[in-house]
Amino acid sequence: MTLSAQLPRRCWAEIDLAALERNLRLIRASLPSHIRYVAVVKADAYGHGLPQTAARLMHAGADLLAVANIAEATIIRELSADFPLLVLGATLPDEDRYLAELELAATVSSADEAARFDAAARAAGKIIPVHLKIDTGMGRLGVWFDRAPELYRAIREARHLRLAGIYTHFASADEDPEFTAEQRGLFLRTLANFKGLDPARMLIHADNSAGLETAPGEDAPFNAVRVGLLQFGILPHPHSLLARVRTEPVFSFHARVGLVKELPAGTGISYGRTHRLGRRSRVAVITAGYGDGLSRASSNRGAVLVGGRRCPILGRVCMDQTIVDVTGLPASPRAGDPVVLVGRQGTDEITVAEFSAWADTVPWETLTSVTKRVARVYRTPLGL
Ligand SMILES: *Cc1c(COP(=O)(O)O)cnc(C)c1O
Known about the structure:
Number of strands: 20
CATH superfamily of the largest domain: Alanine racemase
Shape: elongated
Bound molecules: pyridoxal-5'-phosphate
Number of helices: 11
């Protein structure tokens, strides 16, 4: 073990892999049994750590893993030479050859991409599986829906491509069920114009976590979902109907008390002295700051758990440390005591959603903003 791995931790994230596995099984059980589970693990598995997360999701029964790009796919290829992988992002021309080399499924949004991937597959003497993406109102990747039948034909005619899926992505599944229903309808009407389409031979998918709330039953041609946030135990919005699935948080975020001291009333706290103590106070300097992923936007707003109680953040969050008010605690904390930034301590809990609201952001950004120096500690690995 390296010296740095033996040192006591100052700020770390705990990743509960058994909770991740239970979440996948619960989400699966809430869906009709023919629905395939595409586990979305882009951006280092939403900051949870790609290899560990991907390994557990494969073990737990995911049907396919979706990544943002080829670099992420290579990390999973070191775990498995043949597990089905879908690249969600736009592949760059100088990356085309790796689709064939690593046996990845590519997203296709244009005739140009289809021609490029066909040429790359021919050069490698392989067939590249592709998912045709249709833009039904997100304005990002995908072919605009009225050009989709043309691209569908081009893919069917390409000798070295195999149409392995067709999908679309919702723009506001978490806030606008009407627009989501429109996108869903447009997608289905577009597919109805595809000649000779056999949905049983490919994945037809649209729903992300929030989409699962309004997903239709067994009648539609949909046969797969793409789940990111929910499998990490986080709801896409506070009133989500998906609360019924009862997933558990996988991620928690921890620091320690570095120093405790008393300060007189009137003292200005931290850079810019944006907070002034209204009374004589006991403060704790904790060992985490924005250099770890505790957003500066939560200055004077957020809180942490110390001794099982909420202690407000005083003044600006600094790069490596943050000052919190511990005056109200029944017993003074001591240097080295544990601090929870996200997660449970005693009977209280700070959720990723609450932590994100203090930072004026969304859970997706919070999770992917935990920085590199924060060790991910894996709880409940397999075999324990
Ligand atoms: C990230 C992503 C998902 C997963 O979204 P969640 O809201 O995290 O479930 C699904 N599909 C695409 C195309 C994505 O980029």
